[in-house]
Amino acid sequence: MIILYLRFAEMKLKTLISAFFLPFILASCGQDDERAEGLININLIDAPGDFDQAWVEVLGAEVVINGTAHFVDYVTARKMVNVSDLVNGVSLQVGRRTVPVGQMTEITLLMGEEIYVIRNGQRVNMQFLNSDSRRLTLPADLTIEGGLSYDYYIDLDMSRSITRAAAEIYTFDPVGRAFLSRGMTAISGTVLPFQAAPYIFAVREGDTLGTVTNLATGQFQIRGLTQGEYQLLIQPRSGFADTLINFPVFIDSTNALGEINLRAIAP
């Protein structure tokens, strides 16, 4: 009886020890899993063109990490996106997922079959230039570390993506860029009078990034700039002179230019 009691006590002690250490073991496993993956958020923004609206069917994105492609689904009931709305600080998250640690070398925006613009109040359907035009593949250079989150942006340049092939026939061949929010900067300002509705271009060493102002407020913002000296070119549609401003930008901040007053052209 004493031997049985001792064996029972020994088994009970082992059970208590196992129960005590189990949470720590599970937590350790969870931490190991967390360290083995990072989280990537993929956001879409637009460099607008000369039309009222531009609608694109967005299916999601794809990232290549350590040579392997990982699909990132755009989870929504309606996948049509008016990319013309994605300006002046507005972005759309088209996917997020955990991914393995390692080197991310490529990011691709995946588009469906439907694409059109609204011009002068009329819908104009577009044609993809070729079968490859439904994929906007861009180089990426990101080392993903475990337990960290990354915000990556795809800037779809509609002004350079759409070509008028013939009368009321438009072709679409996507042009854009991709950048990580970390280590980049932005500029913002307000152009007056806001009715001028100008095009805004930030130019540095032959690289040009563009946007338009908010029609109601005259405000604008351009994201994804590297640190350095830029020229800001403001081109009103009519009635006002072009304006050129030299300015520096600094990393990890929004460089506010304040109000910019345009000079009217005498009739």
Automatic annotation (TrEMBL):
Matches recorded under InterPro entries: DUF4382
PROSITE patterns named in the record: PROKAR_LIPOPROTEIN
Domain DUF4382 span(s) in chain numbering: 38-174
Pfam families given in the database record: DUF4382 (PF14321)
Protein's UniProt name: DUF4382 domain-containing protein
